[in-house]
Amino acid sequence: MTDHQWAGVRRQIEAMGARSGDAVFGAAQHGWVLEEPLSEEEVGELEAQIGVRLPEEYRTFLLHVGAGGAGPAHGLFPVRRIQGRWRWEGDGADMTDLSRLAEPFPDRGPDPEVLDALLSERPEEEDFDVIEDFDDAIEAWDERWDAVMFAPERTVGGVSICHLGCAQRELLVVSGRHRGTMWSDRRVDDVDLEPLLDGDGRPMTFARWYTDWLRDAAGQSREDPSRD
Q1: Same domain, 84 and 136
Q2: How confident is the model at residue 4 (pLDDT cuts 50, 70, 90)?
Q3: DSSP assigned state of 181
Q4: Residue 69 has what DSSP assignment?
Q5: Percent of the chain at pLDDT above 90?
Q6: pTM to 2 decimal places
Q7: Cα torsion for 60, 66, 71, 75, to the nearest 10°?
Q8: At 11, which helix (H) or strand (E)?
Q9: What pLDDT was estimated at residue 224?
Q10: H or E element: which one contains 211?
Q11: Is the pLDDT of residue 228 over 50?
């Protein structure tokens, strides 16, 4: 999506806020407010800091729509310069390792057989007579699980960009073969990272992800009887 194709999106968001209120999921959090767009100089500073050029669709969004705010789920994590350093801010944004965004996002996650084996060994409370013994066992198992599922290298090259609640998040890949695509992060539910797909089964890009949300949000607003 070019800068011209983003034209009117900011005005559309403002109109949606006036018309929809909290009728759309997540609107109570982002309030239909967009942060001011970044300048070319500011985006350049961000890219110099992280060592990689952002995917064009997201880059032009930052330049022509806003640095964050109203968007899918509870809204886009805003990009801000804090004490001279750029970062994304939000619930889980700190999971993004800014120092490793130039590294290619991995093509594959943990070995499914390793995950299945670990899950089969997960302690069950009913197998313990003493609750403290179960607590110790599940804590030890969690450490083993997290070492595999939440290994730092699993999300290099990806920016945690919004959250859906309940520690579920979505991320934008900025480096590697999957650059420019959106991924679901539901590892809190013992599910590995998965690419988001469009209606044709193709990897979803940032622009498709955002404009699909805007279209669906407009439809939800029209269907909400409280708006009549």
Answers
A1: no
A2: low
A3: B
A4: B
A5: 71
A6: 0.88
A7: 120
A8: helix 9-20
A9: 53
A10: helix 206-223
A11: no
Are 155 and 165 in a shared domain?
yes
Please state the rounded mean pLDDT for residues 137-153: 94
* Angle of helix 56-64 versus helix 206-223 axis, rounded to 10: 60
Q: Are residue 160 and residue 136 in the same domain, yes or no? A: no
CA nearest 109: which of 193, 204, 196, 188? 193
- Rounded (10°) angle between helices 112-120 and 131-149: 180
Q: Are strands 158-165 and 194-195 parallel, antiparallel or unpaired?
A: unpaired
One domain for residues 218 and 132: no
| d(C-alpha 181, C-alpha 176), whole Å | 10
**CATH no. for residue 195?**
3.40.1580.10
Residues 134 and 100 in one domain: no
Say if residue 138 is in the same domain as residue 211: no
Task: Please tell me whether residues 120 and 195 are part of one structural domain.
Answer: no
pLDDT, tens only, 10-24 = 988 888 877 766 778
Enumerate residues 6+ apart whose C-beta is below 8 A from 20. Answer: 27, 32, 217, 220, 221, 224, 227
Write down which residue in 93, 126, 150 finishes a domain. Answer: 150
Query: Domains in the chain: how many in total?
Result: 2
Q: Higher model confidence: residue 26 or residue 104?
A: 104
Domain region containing 137? 113-150
Least confident of 11-25, 34-48, 57-71, 156-170: 11-25
